[in-house]
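Hi, here's the filled form for the chain we discussed.

Project: internal
Contact: R.S.
Residues: 394
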Amino acid sequence: MAPREGGPPRVVAGLVAAQRALAIDAQVLCGDEPALAAEHAAYWQAQGIGFPAGVVHGVGGESLLARRAALHRWLAAHLAEFDIVHVHQLWRLVPTLAANAVRRVGKPYLIAPHTSLSPWALQQKSGKKALARWLVWNRIFRGAAGFHALNELEAAEIRTLFAAARPAVFVVPNGVALEEFATERLAPVPAAFAGRFSVPEGAAPFVLFLARLHTMKGPDLLLEAFAALAREYPQLQLVYAGPDFGMQSRLQQRAATLGMNARIHFLGLVTGAERLWLLHHALCLCQPSRDEGFSLTILEALACERPVVISDRCKFPQVATAQAGLIVPPAVAPLTAALSEYLADPARRARDGLHGRALVEGCYTWDKVAKLAENMYRTACTLNSRTAVPGAVG
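And the returned structure, exactly as it came back:
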């Protein structure tokens, strides 16, 4: 549940808060040690989303074997209390062991891959993932009551991967808590930002990248697009707000080579008032992902009436349908052209930002999403939990 892990912990936190409001006894079992789990739970409680106390359970241990034993003890003591288990992400220790334990006792469970089963994702460390599937995950896939996809495009990827098995695939999107992004929560410009970048009408307007610095998210594509626009817009800044997942030094070296260190800012993980200020005051949010599930950051920008420039791999065509942003292939030239459209047209930015807010209000609030998830759970509980998956072992 660590904030630096990006979207999945934010998804779980928002969904659990909304489910508790529906009187669903949602609990979280995670891979953090108990002390860290409590610390992360306190973080989510401070975000203004109504996250409750006492629902996050961590498992500790000085070694992998000790953590595994602690996890098995927790499951043995508590698994019978639950009607259904919702497994978020794949491959890691807690999802693997927990899903396998649930499968063995015959309790219904759903798998939310968070784009881990996309063609792009399966190509990364493909040998290790193939081995994990053969050793354990194919059995887990076969035993699931279904898959939870975040959008129709992810659902299509899952159905293609398991074509012969015809698994049940439920589509339930991510959401946001609008109260988290209310303008009355907005503080003056944080001291750390003063003089570095400004509101759109100020002396140093900025394009915002709010995600992990990981090749999947395409921060390198955005840097090259920014460089192509820099001379035409000499006051424009680029802000990277997100933890480093292996790319920051390379991006900084490229910025230095281009002579743009003063205009490209690396803030690391940004939370609280600083995150809110960035979302409300960016010219636009840009997320040129090479692959994506359903980015919460995009929803958050739309909730703050900010238009977005995203790749078609973000799997969010509703952005274009609602005229809330621009969707382009994950490549430098189309990304540059899209950013240029918004830089040159303040009226369009404002109009598209309002469209984005309306889109979120109509379809993507956590209260609406939690009701869809409840229907998914009820349906999954009635399905046969033994869905055949090609290539599964017994």
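Let me know if anything looks off before we file it.
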